[in-house]
Amino acid sequence: MDKNFFKKVRILDGGMGQELLSRGLVSKGTLWSASAILEKKFHNLVIDAHLSFIYAGAEVIVTNTFVGRKIRLIENNVQEHFHYINEQACILTLQAKEISKRNVLIAGSLPSQKDTYVEDKRNTNEIEKDFYEQAKIIAPFVDFLYLDVVSSGREIAIGSNVALKLNKPILLGIHLKKNNLLPSGETITSIFQNIKITIGLV
Predict the structure, then answer these.
(1) How far are the Cα atoms of 6, 105, 162, 172 from residue 3, in angstroms, in the given order?
(2) CA distance linking residue 119 with residue 151, whole number of Å
(3) Average pLDDT rounded to a whole number, residues 153-161
(4) Separation between Cα atoms, residue 18 and residue 16, nearest integer Å
(5) Is the pLDDT of residue 176 over 60?
(6) What fold is seen in the domain 3-198?
(7) 179 to each of 51, 61, 149, 182, 187, how far by Cα in Å?
(8) Residues ≥6 apart with Cβ < 8 Å to 129
(9) CA distance 15 to 124
């Protein structure tokens, strides 16, 4: 991947979960968009959603792995499908790209590994283990990893280090509250200063 790609404004796709629900997906428990991976009858729905984003002008499409994090699968008693859900979501993304015949990039969605929109305060080793296990499955299929709706500088640093270990570029998707702070209470400026030191960029 040419890292100069993001030196200009680029168009990413939209929210896959809401798009699938609007197209008729019925979520199992709190699996949300992962339900479309578990049930093969919804696979074409996922491909069609990716294609719609591509044809609407998206230059980057994101894998449907946001709910593929292990903790959410455990909550829904489908943790044995962890590898399948993440791998199959990537395969469907690649199929959509092939069908479109367009030179879009594929971003591997790597979300906060506990809850959405809140800081993950678990032990650093636990968070890193979860990031790594999901990222390792996704990485071979994608152009870069996308830290998707992350809520603290510590999680960003951990996820970034995982990407470095897997030799993958990374794009940050940071969640900001109405007060312009992350859920952790940090400012964007402070987390970037800390991240540079944490992952050895300075």
Answers:
(1) 7, 12, 18, 14
(2) 5
(3) 94
(4) 6
(5) yes
(6) TIM Barrel (3.20.20)
(7) 35, 29, 16, 9, 10
(8) none
(9) 29
Q: Which residues are bridge partners to 30 per DSSP?
A: none
pLDDT at 167 over 50: yes
Give the integer Cα–Cα distance in Å for 197 and 64: 31
Share of the chain above pLDDT 70, in %: 96
Q: What is the pTM of this model?
A: 0.92
Residue 149: Cβ within 10 Å count: 14
Residue-by-residue DSSP string for 49-80: HHHHHHHTT-SEEE-S-TT-SHHHHHHTT-GG
202 vs 75: CA distance, rounded Å: 40
Domain ranges for the chain: 3-198
Residue 75 exposure: Cα atoms within 13 Å on the Cβ side? 15
Return the amino acid letter for 195. I
pLDDT tens for each residue of 49-68: 999 999 999 999 999 999 99
Give me the count of residues in the chain.
202
Please, are residues 46 and 89 in contact by the beta-carbon 8 Å criterion?
yes
